[in-house]
Specification:
The protein is of the alpha+beta class. It is built from ten helices and eight strands. A four-stranded mixed β-sheet has the order 3-6-7-8. Helix 3 crosses helix 5 and helix 8 crosses helix 9.
């Protein structure tokens, strides 16, 4: 890596991730901007009302999985593009009130992980220009796709999602990496990267789950993304929410559409119908209104009650153990 790029990466790691702040002040190592995201990526910003900030996602598969993660009520923090530092750092939960009194193992660093798997020579390095013309080689940080901070009956825990489009894509260069076409070592570097990430988090007893966005049913994925994007819109006054929710629940599994309910409710209350529309979507997103997310959630069609909870269907992704 060139001196300019290496210096920029190290500066970002130092300023944003040493250590990373908790949301809403969290800043990823790589932001979803054209200046920082890979040239052939599809960066997207997804606002989360839970985190009170935009989540920076670098691909469509990350967008899909990010929406699923944010939909889970047990998630209390999400850190995308979290740096994997070469040297030892504290456990991701260190400093969180939720983890008070828990003994947490530190992350021993990517240099330790690379040595452990016998591939220290493959660790990324960059050249830094010093004053006076001297140049030094320094180890560079890597980053993880998504680190989820969860809370269950046993307490808080972290899991890491390594995300690809298809299950067979893990261990292979990203299709958008044009260098992989001519660089015979690309597969070797990618396989090393995958092994390195797993070994890095193992030192702190954090499971790494290799997940493919194609494992998520297409309609469900589209619904979650759409609901997540609209979750921050203005809604009806809080004192009206309970009544609107009851009316929406009452028409599930009937031929009456949520649109009809919302239009009638807005007329009775003398409010803009668009507020009812956004409240309908937010109630689904916040799991107050249980509709079938494997079917259309458009407001102008009758809705079926939920029969399969998506979080139960994909519960393995959120469990403490590995996939």
């Amino acid at each position: 890596m060139s001196s300019r790029l290496a210096s920029s990466l190290l500066k970002r790691a130092r300023e944003r991730q040493s250590p990373p702040a908790r949301s809403p002040r969290y800043q990823p190592l790589i932001k979803a901007t054209r200046a920082e995201a890979p040239a052939s990526s599809r960066p997207t910003l997804l606002y989360s009302t839970k985190l009170q900030r935009h989540v920076h996602l670098l691909s469509t598969p990350e967008l899909t999985m990010g929406a699923l993660a944010l939909y889970h009520p047990d998630l209390f923090e999400l850190q995308e593009q979290r740096a994997m530092h070469p040297i030892p750092t504290s456990h991701p939960l260190d400093g969180f009130l939720e983890a008070g009194g828990i003994s947490l193992s530190p992350l021993l660093g990517t240099l330790h992980a690379a040595e452990r798997i016998g591939c220290l020579e493959l660790h990324a390095v960059g050249t830094i220009d010093l004053t006076g013309g001297a140049r030094i080689h320094v180890p560079l940080p890597y980053s993880s796709d998504l680190v989820l901070f969860m809370q269950d009956s046993e307490g808080p825990y972290c899991i890491v999602w390594s995300i690809k489009q298809s299950t067979g894509d893990h261990g292979r260069p990203w299709p958008g990496d044009l260098r992989a076409i001519t660089d015979k070592s690309a597969n070797k570097r990618t396989q090393f990267r995958d092994r390195l990430e797993e070994a890095y988090y193992q030192s702190a007893h954090i499971p790494l789950k290799r997940i493919a966005a194609s494992q998520i049913e297409e309609r469900l994925a589209a619904n979650l993304i759409s609901l997540a994007k609209s979750s921050g819109q203005e809604t009806v006054p809080i004192d009206m929410e309970g009544e609107l929710l009851r009316r929406l629940v009452d028409v599930l599994d009937s031929q009456i559409t949520p649109l009809q309910v919302c239009e009638q409710f807005a007329k009775e209350k003398g409010i803009d119908a668009s507020l009812c529309h956004s409240t309908y979507r937010r109630m689904i997103w916040q799991r107050q209104l249980s509709v079938d997310l494997f079917d259309s959630v458009t407001i102008d069609e009758p809705k079926r009650s939920q029969t399969v909870d998506p979080l139960q269907a994909y519960a393995e992704f959120f469990r403490r153990g590995g996939c």
